[in-house]
Amino acid sequence: MTMAIYAPLRFVAVGDSFTEGVGDTDLRLPNDCRGWADRVAEELARHRPQTQYANLALRGRRLKQIVAEQLEPGLAMAPTLVSFHAGGNDLLGARLDMRLLVRGFEDAVARIAQSGSQVLLFTEYNVPLSPVLEPLKLRTAVFNKHIRRISAAYGTLLVDHWCFEKYQDRRMWAPDRLHMSGIGHEYMAKKVLEVLGAPHSLGSPVLGTLQPRSRAEIMADDAAWLRRDVAPWLSRRFRGVSSGDHLSARWPALMPVVLPERLGTSAEPVRI
User: Fold this and answer.
1) What is this structure's pTM?
2) What is the C-alpha separation between 229 and 226, in angstroms, rounded?
């Protein structure tokens, strides 16, 4: 299945840090990031200049928050395409009711589908956090099984992230090991455009041979990761706050796509 043809295209992205673009740093843009959704919108706009785009996604959001804060505003824009990614932060929680998560996810997909918009879903990836957290892989696999079922039931488009072998390379991930790097986001944009059946100019990353690391290098990297990323994340979880609490949606209303060549080189972010 590919994307139905609409003119003009109204693309609304909702979700968490995956869709916000965390890991793909660009200081010229709101929230200092770009991401796969921006890249997809850019490619769509190059071939269909009337394309409009909104991105309501925010880092740290769980499924219930995404539904409560983003779904109605997104659907009120009468989008023709809605990308929906949610549940990743729920999977990382110490306590998880998988049945409740799946039910909430399916209800959200049903609401989007009933609006008449084309729906774009994603499976989750087994992010390379740490061998200690390997049990998360089982949760992710179970959730993905339900996402594939829901996608088939509602006739959505599906980007099966779990199956993309290139993401086994650590260079596809940001230093925090949880979010894709700029290269990872660009490749994700390519895969999304392929699922949409849309023309684009994006290629696959050419990374070269990954140099092996010594045990000492691996241990030093793990220690830095624990200090820089894991400790602050655990602190936020303990305090019940999120890294996205002080942020707003990057592109909160449908607007013409801002192409990167029009941004210039200034570090001053685009104002919306």
Assistant:
1) 0.89
2) 6
